[in-house]
Amino acid sequence: LRLSLVQHRAFATGLKGGHDPSSAYGAAPADVQRESRIALMDIDLIIGSGGVLSHAPQPAQTAAMVIDAFQPEGVTQLAKDSIFMMPHLGVLLASLPTAARSVFERDCVRPLGTCVAPTGADRPGRVCLEYEIKRQDGRSSRGELQLGQVLIEPLAADEEGHLTLVPARKFDVGAGKGKRWSGVVKGGPAGLILDGRGRPLPPTNPTKWFETMGIFEPKRESR
Predict the structure, then answer these.
(1) With left for phi above 0 and alpha for psi between -120 and 50, is residue 15 left, alpha or beta?
(2) pLDDT for 38-95, tens place per residue?
(3) Least CB-packed of 8, 125, 197, 218 within 10 Å?
(4) Euclidean distance between the first and final Cα of the chain, in Å?
(5) CA–CA distance, 58 with 53 (Å, rounded to integer)
(6) 3-class DSSP state of 213
(7) How far apart (Å, rounded) are the C-alpha atoms in residues 57 and 212?
(8) Element (H, E) at 31
């Protein structure tokens, strides 16, 4: 999954410079430096599709694979293609666009939760983010996220909450370093995931991460 994103980002580039009438087809020279148009901080929704992601036994497993592979930044809603039907809906779109859209919205996309991942650098254990989530039923939660820590705030699939984030001076959640972010976020079976492990992800043992996410880790048979 991670390698597919690397390749896709390499393809989604724009040419620097302008129209070059001296080159073939008026395009810019092939050796012009290009920059990917995909900025993870600007992506607000990731949908996991394909057999492994669509059919994982637990929604939290799909969410964990998506987060570890794509390493979203800032505030990103996570969802999955319920039964790997997106390719088929793409074909249906050509002949029955209304039906395709209806199935896509009502039966295809299933919310997993929302990931909050501040970017920045500091010493492990330092507070990188303060947060407050106000739910529709009036309940609220607030706390601090330390660098290297992962927290889960319950937020159901049919529930929305108003989230306020105050990153530390060296960290960014989408509004700029040290700047407050607030907005409405959607829940899911994986809840609100506060990922303070940093970007790129450090090489750490994932066991604690799995426990926090509530992911079942099968026991190895003794021989």
Answers:
(1) beta
(2) 889 999 999 999 889 988 999 999 999 999 999 999 999 999 998 889 999 999 999 9
(3) 218
(4) 33
(5) 10
(6) helix
(7) 17
(8) none
**CB of 171 closer than 8 Å to CB of 128:** yes
pTM: 0.83
Chunk the chain into consecutive blocks of 10 residues (it has 223) and report each block's average pLDDT, rounded to whole numbers: 87 63 45 67 93 90 94 97 90 94 92 97 94 94 95 93 97 96 96 95 80 72 56
203 prior amide bond cis, ω within 30:
no
pLDDT at position 75 is 98
Residues 6 or more apart whose CB falls under 8 angstroms from that of 109 comprise 47, 79, 80, 81, 82
**What is the Cα–Cα distance from 91 to 97, expressed in whole angstroms?**
10
Which neighbouring-strand residues pair with 166?
Answer: 130
Dihedral (C-alpha) 45, 181, 117, 213: value to the nearest 10 degrees? Answer: -80
**DSSP classification of residue 104:** I
Q: 5: closest CA among 68, 69, 80?
A: 69
